[in-house]
């Protein structure tokens, strides 16, 4: 007897065909990896094909793989991961695509397919610096408009570059260089010779 997961896997392979770079099934979930060049057409097929019908985009986020696997990762640095839900068939799929250029990560926008992608893509742009081609309002959504950098990148400094505070004398918000002094925390270890021995 075929399980629902096996039915979905077979439908994905039949419908997407050679657009699939990789398909994995783990922990009751299917992850499909598609090339950035095929991303928009694959996502439209996932939404519109009668055998799949992923009507709802549940989530979309960016990821930075620069230190993945303790530095063993040698693929592209930035990925966009989407979680889709088919209400009609009651199944889910995760779709991952990697931006081909690490210096200027660019992926097609799916905001025309699912309106929910609008703010998700803005968040991925703000936090990771991933650009979405075709997005009609790609601007920061969580950080301040004058913010420099993308804070979820692995190479972003932990304390940042500038801090913002209200200056009562100037009666406005000002930016100034970070004043946090870096320090090393060395744990204090107490050793007892006969600890746990009766």
Describe the structure.
With 198 residues, the chain is an alpha/beta fold. It has a single domain (4-142), classed as NADH:ubiquinone oxidoreductase Nqo5 subunit (Beta Polymerase, domain 2), CATH 3.30.460. Helices cover 18% and strands 29% of the residues. The chain has helices at residues 4-16, 39-48, 117-128, and strands at residues 20-26, 29-34, 56-64, 78-86, 91-98, 106-108, 131-133, 162-167, 172-177. It has a 5-stranded mixed beta sheet with strand order 1-2-5-4-3. The chain has a two-stranded parallel sheet with strand order 6-7. Strand 4 and strand 5 form a beta hairpin. The chain is extended, with a radius of gyration of 22 Å. The model has no long low-confidence stretch (mean pLDDT 88).
The low-confidence parts are none
Q: Over the alpha carbons, how many angstroms does the gyration radius reach?
A: 22 Å
Q: Calculate the mean pLDDT score and round it.
A: 88
As for the number of domains, it is 1
Biggest sheet architecture: 5 strands, mixed
Describe the strand arrangement of the main beta sheet, using strand numbers: 1-2-5-4-3
CATH topology: Beta Polymerase, domain 2
**Cα distance spanning the termini:** 59 Å
- The CATH architecture can be given as 2-Layer Sandwich
Estimate the helix proportion, in percent.
Answer: 10-25%
Give the class-level CATH name. Alpha Beta
What is the helix tally? 3
**Helix and strand string, N-terminal first?**
HEEHEEEEHEEE
List how many beta strands DSSP finds: 9
Beta-sheet strand percentage? 25-35%
Structural class: alpha/beta
